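Justification of computing resources. Each target in the renewal requires a structure prediction run like the one illustrated here; the chain below, 673 residues long, is used simply to show the kind of job we budget for.
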Amino acid sequence: MYSILRRSVIVALLFLTYSASSQVYNPLKWKYSQKQISDSEYAVTIHVDIEKGWHTYSQYTDSNGPTPMAFTYTPAPDYKLEGKTMEDSCITKFDSTFKVVVKYFVGQANFTQKIIVHSPKGFTLKGNVYCQVCNEGMCLPPKAFDFAIAIPPTAPAKQAASGYLWLWLLGFLGGLAALFTPCVFPMVPLTVSFFTKQASTSKKTSAGPYIYAVCIILIYVIFGALITAIAGPSGLNAIASNGWVNLIFFIIFIIFGFSFLGAFEITLPSSWVNKTDSASERGGLLGIFFMALTLCLVSFSCTAPIVGSLLAGASLSGAYWSLITGMFGFSTALALPFAIFAAVPNLMKNLPKSGGWLNSVKVVLGLLEIAFSLKFLSNTDLVGLHIKWLHFHIDGPMGILKREIFIAIWIVMFAIIGLYLLGKLKFHHDSDLKYLGVGRLFLAVIAFAFSLYLIPGLFGAPLKLIGGFPPPSYYAEGWSIASSQGVKSSGTDAAKDVAKNSNQRIGCPLNLNCFHDYDEAVAAAKQFNKPILIDFTGFSCFNCRKMEENVWSDPGVLNIISNDYILVSLYVDDKMELPEAQQFVSKIDGSKVETLGEKWSDMETTLYKSNAQPLYVLVDAMGNELTPKRGYTPDVEQYKQFLEEGKNNFKAHAANTGNNTPIFKSSSSVSLN
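Resulting structure tokens:
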């Protein structure tokens, strides 16, 4: 009570002194901006220029001193706040007037708030900043500064454009594969003939096939939109980091794979097909729509595994429109023949006749489904299985599917595909192969060549063509790319001894020496006078594995990481529970942080304003950033330049490592001390 009264008296006296000597004015100049960082996410920046001689206080300054800064956002259905407002690093010192340690900004400061946008049409984000401004002799009373920031209509983020293009292309290739299956291929000439006969009877050009094709696209896109609306991007992304969901996907892919091989057939209830088929007889646009829906239901046993693959791919992407984009590509390929053959009916004469080759396509797809299912089993193995409310947890890695076993199974699977295409193996429903066609021979050669390409992976080759699919390089039975290339990890045997105790459970990328605890890495950085490479990663992070196997494996990059940095790999999906004494409540969203992964994820979001993996941050032992952080960077030279810049800045500013002055000043540069 006494401290509050003293604070009020000091503020009042200083204000009266200031008012008597001069006119009241505002030493703060505010600017506002926004930037779209994903399809539904914006980063709003509140910038303040502070007049020379004045300062304003941090949100986290001692409440017994001057008034801390506070941000208020007017609630609206158009958006949702994501975490708390982040701020720049600030000055920390003892204030003799208030008799407390205060945190304040001078010159300028940036504050960033992430929002999830619910309205695609755009809106105005309103609110205010409540703060106090002081100089060496006086303080102004706390004041609220209102703001209104225009958020434009959302559009697909530019940085995701190439990702969406690839998703559409993969969906399109999946649609082509589904087209050449026994469930779909025979329907093409049958359906086109129906519409052309109908047109000749009415003596008018029929638009039926084109409407039919559009309806197929609509059905699959609507299906993708419904799943996205129900699960959302975070729900889709959870597939990539949840052990149980990955296990379910593994089982589903195995079932679909064996179905394609002819072990059994998966079909929807016949009543569904009969009802849509009868509805298609109504004629008109509604009748054509139900004809298209009938095709989708009848072909379910052939298309469902490919659609399931698209769902899995969308989960790895995590972007809001990923599944819809994939479905659009898939349905476009599926619908295209109906429009093409309707426009040029004579082309149908060149179509190959239905026969055993259609079943061969189905069998090859089944073998590929089984091979790709191992990716989901690998994710489960690495992440573990957890049911929080039952207190059931099996921490990963569980040792079920190590790298060599994964690669060995793929070698066998693609060898089987090659033998099957040559007619040396035969499955149920297969016809006798009278002769070997050029197409079969070409595909068999590709399958055998790929199988041979995989063999060196059993002995340590990085296998860049499939980087991201097999388990990480450290999850093996003894391979070390660092030692195989003569790399002297961490530069000294002493550093190696310090790091080895941190790697007993997980291991390190490319068998480098690394830490999995940030505090241990800081201690080693101080001991050996080296900068730190913070690697925010994940067991199930596809792009993280690609970076390790395609970029980190480069001899130049590998040597820099090994000799010039203390590497700390922090897995944001590590489900290992923290001791109860180390659990805490996140300042970002108020949730309880109970696992190691949640701890590192909270650190990434709090300090570096990012929740994407991989994220690479170069810092000194005081936590000061040495160069702008980087995400996924597939270009080896760019990544090498990033490491070199951080190393050179560390050496240039070695004299400053004992203070809190950031080496690289950015909106995300936050001291860890």
